[in-house]
What we know:
This protein is α/β, with parallel strands linked by helices. The chain has helices at residues 10-17, 35-50, 54-85, 111-138, 150-169, 177-190, 192-217, 219-245, 267-277, 296-306, 329-337, 357-366, and strands spanning 2-3, 20-26, 29-34, 90-96, 99-104, 261-262, 281-286, 289-295, 320-323, 342-347, 350-356.
Amino acid sequence: xxxxxxxxxxxxxxxxxxxxxxxxxxxxxxxxxxxxxxxxxxxxxxxxxxxxxxxxxxxxxxxxxxxxxxxxxxxxxxxxxxxxxxxxxxxxxxxxxxxxxxxxxxxxxxxxxxxxxxxxxxxxxxxxxxxxxxxxxxxxxxxxxxxxxxxxxxxxxxxxxxxxxxxxxxxxxxxxxxxxxxxxxxxxxxxxxxxxxxxxxxxxxxxxxxxxxxxxxxxxxxxxxxxxxxxxxxxxxxxxxxxxxxxxxxxxxxxxxxxxxxxxxxxxxxxxxxxxxxxxxxxxxxxxxxxxxxxxxxxxxxxxxxxxxxxxxxxxxxxxxxxxxxxxxxxxxxxxxxxxxxxxxxxxxxxxxxxxxxxxxxxxxxxxxx
Length: 370
Ligand code: ZN
């Protein structure tokens, strides 16, 4: 499933990242594996072993599971490739025991583009299933597991896994691919916010059903249901936030008083400015350009490691995006999502304000729409 939920708070994102291992990258898109997926593999191996599958059966089972996740990566990459065609970057692909998530930087502007991105993943799985089916047919298999040779059985299982992945993802329940396709189609008639509300409502309904089915049949489904429920809710919140911010200039929501430090000034100076004047962060300037920002945690960590007299360049820092005072906040929200949590509002090269995820949230809370 592709997901687009920008503007997570950097702190919580970094917190999450602690449980993710970078596995490599394909076409510049980092592939991350959640630690629980490794535990899942261990658990499955032990389960197979205890079930008496023997070394050979256990290895075959684990290999098949690994292949499922390779398939999931390729499914997510297909989303990413189609998104790339429409100018939407993919931040990363995360693998969890319950599947994969390609984090798109934003939802494409045109509903038909979102439709194409959403359907690309399941189409990939159906294509693979079709190829395996044709291959098995050419090899003379009767497609029955009971009479299949070891190699045929492997291909046959992989075929059905691909069919299952396509069918499951096509359930029209947000945030599954089918739900995204539904949202895209509804968006054409009623606008994205209402379309998302309907698709997310269906998604949460399906999640509850799936959870109930899981309670009687398979605890794994309960986990997937919980994930779907929260994902639907957070995406709806994000679309509402984006709609509330559409067209509002950055200057309306920025923290309007901002101190700056030079990269060669000491951490003690940065600490003093933050304590005396407050604020979320201090932009760091180098040769007249804003190059980074320091939060309280950054400064504390820098002092801890290098001491208060060390230059601010020695401290860990946050990436910044520089924006004009007139930049619409919905676009700022998209840009904040791309790993930088702090936007510095710059007027004629002079930093005049800060926009953070919290700042956007408080703007929306204090400016409710009619
Ligand atoms: Zn998908």
